[in-house]
Design goal:
Structural class: alpha+beta
Oligomer: single chain
Radius of gyration: 23 Å
Keywords: Cell outer membrane, Ion transport, Lipoprotein, Membrane, Palmitate, Polysaccharide transport, Porin, Signal, Sugar transport, Transmembrane, Transmembrane beta strand, Transport
Main location: membrane
Number of helices: 4
Order of helices and strands: HEEEEHEEEHEEHE
Pfam families: Poly_export, SLBB_2
Helix content: 25-40%
Strand content: 25-35%
Protein name: Sugar ABC transporter substrate-binding protein
Membrane topology: Multi-pass membrane protein
Strand order of the largest sheet: 7-6-10-8-9
């Protein structure tokens, strides 16, 4: 009986320690930053009229009744919740607001040119590379110039072209050209 108790206690301590580690990691990690085209689910407790899905507009804002226009691009959901609570306080005592990300449509890149399925590619992780995006569109067609691929990126208001040497990459060469993509990039495949 004593042995069973010790095993159970050890297991509980391990679970508690790993839960604490995961919570600390989540707090240390940076929250997802909202972008234009993202979808948010907003709800205010006990206010059915204030429960809706909204899309972040190209200017980075959303609009809600009583709250008005609120710029949310670059913020996390907790910061948006806090701003909404402050704007609702004149209309209701102690508003409880929940904001969740319903869709990360703004976190995507475009792949155009000689690929099998050109179009919008969602960035499913924060470290998606050019090769991964090209695989998501089915790869290159047979007439594509693999070593002439470029990524068009906006950098501080100006456009920058970054080379991707696909043919070399699949041979294990020019690994530095397998760049990490950012939301809004356009992969050009001639």
């Amino acid at each position: 009986m004593k042995k069973l108790f010790l095993h159970t206690l050890s297991a509980l301590l391990l679970v508690g320690a790993s839960t604490a580690t995961l919570a600390a990691d989540a707090q240390d990690g940076q929250a997802y930053q909202l972008r234009p085209a993202d979808r948010l689910q907003v709800s205010v407790w006990r206010e059915d009229a204030l429960q809706r899905e909204v899309r972040v507009l190209p200017d980075g804002s959303i609009t809600m009744p009583l709250i008005g226009r609120l710029v949310v691009a670059g913020l996390g959901t907790e910061a948006v919740q806090e701003q909404m609570v402050e704007r609702l306080k004149p209309y209701m005592p102690d508003p409880i607001v929940t904001v969740t990300v319903a869709g990360t449509d703004g976190n995507s890149v475009y792949v155009i040119g000689k690929v099998l399925k050109p179009g919008l590619v969602p960035l499913l992780t924060d470290n998606t590379t050019a090769l991964q995006a090209l695989s998501l569109v089915g790869g290159l067609d047979r007439f594509a110039d693999g070593n002439a691929i470029r990524v068009l990126r906006s950098d501080g208001g100006k456009q920058v072209l970054l080379p991707v040497r696909y043919n070399d990459l699949i041979k294990g060469d020019s690994l530095q050209t397998n760049i990490q993509l950012q939301a809004g990039d356009t992969v050009l495949v001639p």
